[in-house]
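Re: the pair you flagged

First of the two:
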Amino acid sequence: MCRVERANLRVVAGAALPAASALDAEGFEASCMDSFVSSWSARGFSPVFIENATGVLERFLTLLAVPAWEAGPDDVDAVVAQLVTNGLAASTRRGYVQAFKDFHRFLVVRKAAEIEATFGVHLIDPVDEFNASRHVGNDSPSEKAPPTPERMEEFFGFLRDRIATARKFGPAARDYALYRTLYHAGLRADEASSLELADLHFGRGPFGKIHVRFGKGTRGSGPRPRWVPMLDQLDLILRWFVDDVRPKLPESNALFCDEGGGAIHRGESAWV
């Protein structure tokens, strides 16, 4: 969608000059986009994330009828309405809006003075409570780089040491195995809590596999089962858990059970 050049005037040193042309605005926006993408690299995001996130932002800006710094709530509403018309799911639309919000915040922090001096626009956040779906905010995890492998080793070292001093060995050792499974297998919390002992298949493949029977579906399709390999010595951790830790927990089918034998839920911890 091409953008319509606006005939606004801006005042510089007492002289009335026409605002920058649409071509200048597009070039400046592209330059800002390049700087924003570079900031992702500086914060340690992976090339795959950067490529996907850049594509989402570019598509949002293409649908936007004005430069990013001129966008108001009505402009964002129009883009969201177009995404709905295109059949995008609510979670996907949230991703689009969040990508634009992140970019707009970058403009506020890094380019506000230049934009006001060049285009005469004072930046105001165009994403409000009426056009933002849930979970869209400035505190989104997408703004933070994932923890480094060294940081994760420190975390797991803390968990290992905590097992020896915890009031109850079983729950503390369960939590260690659970967090290891989340990290190395890439499972969601709900997927891991739904695992049963029978879902561990140590003889399947070179390292063993986990049968995630209640994998997250899309667009209301329901659970989508999948197989996940036990990489990075996760098989050794889960063997230790099944042989040495699980017998100390209540008897049940749940792999990571609570002290009553049911599946563990979010918020439960052995460190009380």
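Second of the two:
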Amino acid sequence: MGYNKTAPKRPVNMTLNEDLVRRVRGLSTNLSETVESLLADFIEAAEAKAMERDRQIAAHVTANEAFVAKYGSLADEFSDL
């Protein structure tokens, strides 16, 4: 889905592990850019996971509806009405 890469930047206050910050400084010259990229990846993965969960729920609902249409509801056997 992506995000608006041209959206204005704003400062945020974060508390990060000092050792991690020191180590990433040796690997990246721009900590903000690195964190932004990691956040974008995290959001993409979380949204994909949510979409897959929604797809599975829809498939289960469809299968249940087909079962009830073919065999009736299991609750019908226990109804006092």
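The chain is about 60% helix and 0% strand.

-B.
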